[in-house]
Structure to design on (197 residues):
């Protein structure tokens, strides 16, 4: 097994597999696909809710609360998870969330019509008590770990990935493990990603 400097888990929940083609996502489908694992037979744990899948991916389990896409204030837990395991071995991580206003944002916001929706239930890290800090109130500053690692992918503009693109292009502020949640329109990150490959 080769040593990896960075690992990226790009979740395409709101993008169907047939949209990831050379025309719409030339870097992802053309260059990167040849060098990555492409999981095409992964099936959702639940038919209607997303949170259970995100918690399942990052902890191997989920509760009925997560199966119902509840917000973190109602549905947090202190269980072992991928992020805590990475912390224990000193491997930094980042979760890059689409349309999130601030690091470690715990509330849904945005609108479908403007294509800038942030869904807290797509952000697994904020559901783990130790990472978020058990401070589920917008008036309280989240834990330092959450503010450092749970980051907006870009601005709240549709398909923005400006912060993620900058991290890719500069090689700065990336974790050893990076999770994109959920992926934005495939063409938004192709420029900076191409420069860092």
């Amino acid at each position: 097994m080769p040593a990896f400097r960075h690992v990226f888990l790009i979740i395409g929940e709101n993008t169907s597999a047939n949209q990831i083609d050379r025309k719409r996502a030339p870097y992802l489908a053309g260059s990167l696909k040849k060098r990555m694992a492409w999981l095409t037979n992964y099936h959702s744990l639940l038919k209607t809710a997303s949170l259970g899948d995100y918690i399942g991916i990052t902890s191997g389990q989920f509760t009925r609360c997560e199966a119902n896409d509840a917000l973190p204030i109602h549905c947090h837990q202190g269980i072992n998870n991928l992020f805590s395991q990475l912390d224990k071995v000193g491997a930094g991580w980042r979760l890059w969330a689409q349309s999130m206003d601030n690091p470690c944002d715990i509330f849904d916001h945005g609108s479908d019509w403007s294509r800038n929706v942030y869904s807290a239930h797509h952000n697994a890290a904020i559901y783990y008590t130790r990472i978020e800090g058990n401070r589920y109130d917008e008036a309280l500053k989240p834990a330092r770990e959450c503010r450092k690692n749970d980051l907006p992918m870009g601005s709240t503009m549709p398909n923005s990935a400006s912060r993620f693109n900058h991290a890719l292009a500069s090689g700065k502020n990336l974790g050893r493990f990076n999770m994109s949640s959920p992926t934005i329109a495939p063409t938004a990150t192709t420029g900076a990603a191409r420069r860092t490959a």
Residues 184-197 have pLDDT under 50 and may be disordered. The first helix runs from residue 26 to 31.
